[in-house]
Design a protein that fits this description.
3 domains; two-stranded parallel ribbon; 16 helices; Rossmann fold; five-stranded parallel sheet; 7 strands; Zinc Finger, Delta Prime, domain 3
């Protein structure tokens, strides 16, 4: 049996199937009812449903797979980001009449914030010239990277991270349909790692289920290449209590046992420190300043082990000066 991507198998096909983006879906359903819509700009983090929503909208407007294939074109702008693509492939598709009596064609440009400035200016002109026959849906992570003339021609919809409970419900539904054995801790671990990215959550579930007979927290963190939050908190607490060597040993174990990179550790340190309710805000502020410096040095090529050791030393210093606070 061929390996099947669950993210595609369980992708919502219509706007009614999409949950937790109520304001966006309500407006898009209005476009479907009126059989008319402006150019659209979908902005938000990865894995929050932008591409799925664009496909579902096109499906609801066209009503059949045949019309969808004939009138809907999807391009990933990060792969085809130059002005030649805009002037040839997109222009050729946009200038032809819609097939099957539908009101307009749809061109979906995914990762549109990767388009070069010249390509965006060429796109703006095409959006003006062929507005009677074609509508554009631009999806991006950062709307600030889209030039203002394009933004002003689009209705902008912002997608937020998927709520944890919605991610959990979707994972449990898929696991039950696929006959996957799981623990509550395993599902919680996937939700923690995904951080509102449903695509990542589903891929983690599928990968973890292929690696073990039961999806539990240990398997999930190993698949994700991240440490269990309790281990990270233990390392932070050891440093805050002045036990630098012990914290350093915990750090090395995390990087060896889980194969974590320095940036992975920095990301988890940031998350656990900011989530703590017992560390005073003043200490958090100082730690964030130093953590940002460490992140910059690692990004620029500094030795990760040395920089993370310096981070632990900073935790020791702050812990000693503030009476040894600890995480919850």
């Amino acid at each position: 049996m061929a390996f099947e991507l669950w993210i595609e198998k369980y992708r919502p096909r219509t706007l009614d199937d999409i949950v937790d983006q109520e304001d966006v879906i309500r407006a898009l359903k209005g476009f479907v009812e009126k059989r008319s819509m402006p150019h659209l700009l979908f902005a938000g983090p990865a894995g929050t449903g932008k591409t799925t929503t664009a496909l579902a909208l096109a499906h609801d407007i066209y009503g059949s797979e045949e019309l969808l294939r004939a009138n809907y074109m999807e391009l990933n702008a990060s792969d085809e980001r130059g002005i030649d693509t805009i002037r040839t492939k997109i222009k050729d598709f946009a200038k032809t009449a819609p097939f099957g009596g539908v009101p307009f064609k749809i061109i979906h440009l995914d990762e549109a914030d990767s388009l070069t400035a010249d390509a965006q200016h060429a796109l703006r002109r095409i959006m003006e010239m062929y507005s009677t026959t074609t509508r554009f849906i631009l999806a991006c992570n950062y709307s600030s990277k889209i030039i203002e003339p394009i933004q002003s021609r689009c209705a902008v919809f912002r997608f937020g991270p998927i709520p944890e409970e919605a991610v959990r419900e979707r994972l449990i539904m898929i696991a039950n349909k696929e006959g996957v054995k799981y623990t509550d801790e395993g599902i919680s671990a996937i939700v923690y790692v995904a951080e509102g990215d449903l695509r990542r959550a589903i891929n983690l579930l599928q990968t973890a289920s292929a690696m073990a007979d039961q999806v539990d927290a240990k398997v999930v963190y190993r698949v994700a290449g991240l440490a269990h939050p309790e281990e990270v908190r233990g390392m932070i607490n050891a440093a805050l209590k002045g036990r630098f060597v012990a914290a350093r040993d915990m750090l090395r174990n995390l990087m060896i046992n889980y194969g974590m990179s320095a940036q992975d550790v920095i990301k988890q340190l940031n998350r656990e420190i900011m989530a703590s309710k017992s560390i005073p805000d003043g200490i958090k502020a100082q730690l964030m300043i130093f953590l940002s410096e460490v992140d910059f040095r690692v990004t620029e090529g500094a030795h990760g082990d040395v920089q993370l050791a310096a981070m632990l030393a900073k935790l020791v210093e702050l812990g000693e000066s503030h009476g040894g606070p600890s995480l919850d």
